[in-house]
Write a structure and sequence with these properties.
By secondary structure, the chain is mostly beta strands. Helices cover 5% and strands 32% of the residues. Strand 7 (72-76) and strand 8 (82-86) form a beta hairpin. The chain is globular and about 40 Å long.
């Protein structure tokens, strides 16, 4: 059982945050943006309920790359830790599993953007559904 608020931080500890409600869903993302952002083949991320993310320290240190056709990629301007993706309207956060201080209490339920998966790291045969692009809303 996960205790709330669920807390997290960047690598240097300058940015801290909390999530006040249970996470809604989680997935593995295999898109090339996540590969380049993380330096790995995929990114596990959890979707937070709207209004449940609160930055408790270092908000002024957050930086974002905002692609014209997607969510902003938010990171710590001090240490470079990738924190989350944020919807253009600021209501939706997909938080990277690696920034949580403890078990987020949720596991990825699918792999998305597998059409772009890294050829050098095959997706494991874990039984999770795979989607060539973004996971459909009903999945």
């Amino acid at each position: 059982m996960t205790d709330y608020p669920l807390k997290g931080r960047c690598n240097c500890g300058s940015v801290t945050f909390e999530v006040t409600e249970p996470l809604q869903s989680a997935s593995w993302c295999h898109c090339t943006r996540c590969q380049r952002r993380t330096g790995s083949s995929a990114s596990p991320q959890a979707r937070a309920a709207p209004g449940s993310v609160r930055i408790t320290q270092g908000e002024e240190l957050l930086r974002a790359w905002e692609p014209p056709d997607g969510f902003a990629k938010v990171f710590c301007g001090e240490c470079g830790s990738s924190m989350w993706s944020r919807s253009p309207d600021g209501s939706s956060y997909a938080i990277r599993f690696g920034v949580f201080d403890s078990d987020p209490g949720i596991r990825p339920s699918c792999h998305q953007f597998v059409a772009y998966a890294a050829s050098w790291d095959p997706i494991p045969d874990d039984g999770l559904p795979r989607f060539p692009e973004r996971r459909p809303p009903d999945a």
